[in-house]
Write a structure and sequence with these properties.
single chain, 6 helices
């Protein structure tokens, strides 16, 4: 449904419009967990955090931290390569109106759990309250209260919290590039990268 309601600027694109898998280094030490693919980002391109402003913010921060080979993420074949990082989300499809239902989170949980099992990261960076709660619930743990920059431990592994780099947060100044850079660097250090 979301893939059929294209933005004018992407009218000529054939949207991916299916569940979006995680993306990154298969030997990653840091797992970045978001909410879901954006309707006109990952849902369009087929790659997590690609093709929308949130993905651009994250790509630039990862590049500045030395964890990405380029500062932009526009399509699946743009040459982006991540070093020590794996990007994933609690939900695999773009939820209508960006409001995921509890059933959607439960339906997608096995995919998140399998990526956690396969990657076995040393640390996590949770982008937003829903991502934090989804990560903790996936591992049958009670999520802590959310606060940007806060560090907690999940099953012996550090979790660093950040506001999600959504336009709602970046356009209002709730999240600045400097703030995102700081938590990315903290997550990088926590993962031993």
């Amino acid at each position: 449904m979301v893939a059929r309601q294209k933005k004018k600027e992407f009218a000529s694109w054939e949207y991916w419009g299916r569940p979006v898998p995680g993306f990154g280094d298969p030997h990653a030490k840091l797992m970045v967990v978001g909410l879901a693919p954006a309707a006109h980002g990952g849902n369009r391109t087929g790659r997590m955090f690609t093709g929308d402003s949130s993905g651009q913010w994250l790509a630039r921060a990862l590049y500045r931290a030395g964890l990405a080979n380029q500062p932009a993420s526009t399509s699946k074949d743009d040459g982006l390569s991540l070093k020590g990082v794996f990007l994933t989300a609690v939900i695999r499809c773009a939820p209508p109106k960006n409001r995921p239902l509890p059933a959607e989170i439960l339906n997608c949980r096995p995919y998140l759990l399998e990526e956690i099992r396969l990657i076995d990261p040393r640390a996590y960076l949770a982008l937003g309250r829903v991502a934090l709660a989804g990560l903790f619930h996936a591992l049958s743990e009670v999520p802590p209260s959310f606060s940007h920059g806060k560090h907690v431990v999940l099953r012996g592994k550090p979790v660093i919290m950040s506001y999600h780099p959504s336009r709602q947060n970046t356009n209002t100044g709730k999240l600045t590039e400097q703030m995102l850079d700081l938590v990315v660097m903290e997550a990088k250090q926590a993962a031993g990268l």
